[in-house]
Amino acid sequence: MRELLRENIANLTPYSCARNDFTGEAEVFLDANENWQDFVGKPDANRYPDPLATQLRKALQDVLGLAMSKTVIGNGSDELIDNLMRCFCRPGKDSVLLLPPTYGAYRVFADINDVTVHTVPLTPSFAIDIPGLTKFLEQEKLNRNENGRVKLLFICSPNNPTGNAFDRSVIEQVCSLFDGITVVDEAYYDFSNKESAVSLLENYPNLVVLRTLSKCWALASARVGIAIASEEIIAVLRSMKYPYNVGSPSQDLALHALSQAHQVQKGLALIKAERERMERALSQLDCVRTVFPSDANFFLVRVGNALAVYRYLLDRGIIVRNRSKELHCENCLRITIGSREENDRLLAELSSYKEEQDA
Ligand SMILES: *Cc1c(COP(=O)(O)O)cnc(C)c1O
Asked: What is the distance in A from the centroid of ligand 1 to the CA of 40?
C-alpha cells in the first residue's frame, strides 16, 4: 500500500481539530470557537460533529459486523471514491481501471482529479472478462514507470446499471491478479444473495469495500457512506478527509436507522418481493424485450425504442433512467423498484404503450 500512496499524502500532517485533541470528560468547551447559543431548538447543533463518527462506527460494528478499526465514514460513498483517487492517483500521471458498463461517478471523479481512465469492458452478458483483464494487466505492468501506472481498479457489485452481482470467487481472482488497490463498491449489497467481499480483507490488504446507507437503509439524504479496509488504508483515509465531513444530524439519522435494523429487514423483504413480481410483470409487456436479472433494487430493461419509452413515461409523470448510451446497453432503461403503488402505475402506463408510437 505504501508504495502505491502519493508522497504528499504519506507525508501529510493532518489538520488537528479541536474535537480530536480532547477526549475526556469536560463541561466547558471553549476550544472550537463555537457559539453556545441555540436558535433552532437543537441543543447540540452549535457543536462540531465527531470527526471519526465513533458512535456510528460502533453501531456499524454491532449491527453489520464491520470492525470499527477498519471503517471510515464518508459524506456518501461518493466522497470515499473521490478520496481514494486523491490518495493514490497523481494527477496527470496515474490512472484507474474501470469495467464498463458501470457506475458513472468513477469516471467523473477521475476526470475531476485529472486521472486517466482505462477500461476492460464486461462481456455482453455483464460478466467480468478475466482473460481480457489478465491481458490488460500484463501489458500494463510492462508499460508502467515512474510517470504513472494503474493504481485503482473499481468493481461495482451488484453492478449499476446492469443489476448483477459478481461471485466472491471472481472478485478474489481479480484481487490476486491486480497489484494495486481493488475497490469493491457494494452500494447494493443488501439486495443480493451473493457473499460480500469484506471477508477477503483478511487475505488481500489492498482491498477496499464500500457500503452506503443511501439504498437499502433508505437514508440517501443523510449522505453516509462507509469504507472498510485494512487499518493502514483506513488511517490514510482518515488523515486526509475533511475533518467534519459528516454532520451530526446525519450521524444521528444513521444511528437511528441502524437501531431499526429489524424494520429495515422487513422493508428489504418487501423490495425483494416486488422485484420478483416486477420481473415477471415487466417480461410480459409487449414493449419489453429483455428484463436482466437483478441482485439490486432496480432492473435494466431492454425495450424496442428506449428513448421513445422514456419520453412516453416522462409525459405521464414517471421518471426512469435511459442507459442506452452505455456499452452493451442499447435501448435499455434502468428502472428503480418503487412502492407497490408506484410499480403498478408504471406497469399500467407501459401496458398501454403502443410501439407504433415510436415513430
Ligand atoms: C448510489 C450509488 C452510490 C452512491 O452512494 P452514496 O453513498 O449515496 O454517495 C455508490 N455507488 C453506486 C454503485 C451507487 O449506485
From this structure: 31
- Separation between Cα atoms, residue 257 and residue 212, nearest integer Å: 12
- Across all residues in the chain, what is the average pLDDT? 96
Ligand 1 centre from 156 Cα, in Å?
10
Residue 313, C-beta contacts closer than 8 angstroms, at least 6 positions apart: 319, 320, 346, 349, 350
Predicted model pTM: 0.96
Per-residue model confidence (pLDDT) at position 358:
56
Specify the pLDDT at position 26: 83
**Ligand 1 centroid, distance to 191 Cα (angstroms):** 14
Q: Is 212 in the pocket of ligand 1 (CB under 6 A)?
A: yes
% of the chain surpassing 90 pLDDT: 93
- Domain boundaries 262-358, CATH class: alpha beta
Residues of the chain with pLDDT under 50: 359
What is the side-by-side strand order in the sheet with 207-212? Answer: 71-75, 224-229, 207-212, 181-185, 150-156, 95-98, 116-119
User: Does residue 187 have its Cβ closer than 6 Å to ligand 1?
Assistant: yes
Four-way CATH pick for 7-15+49-259: 3.40.640.10, 3.60.10.10, 3.50.50.60, 1.10.260.40: 3.40.640.10
- Specify burial of residue 143 (Cβ count, 10 A radius: 0-12, 13-18, 19+): exposed
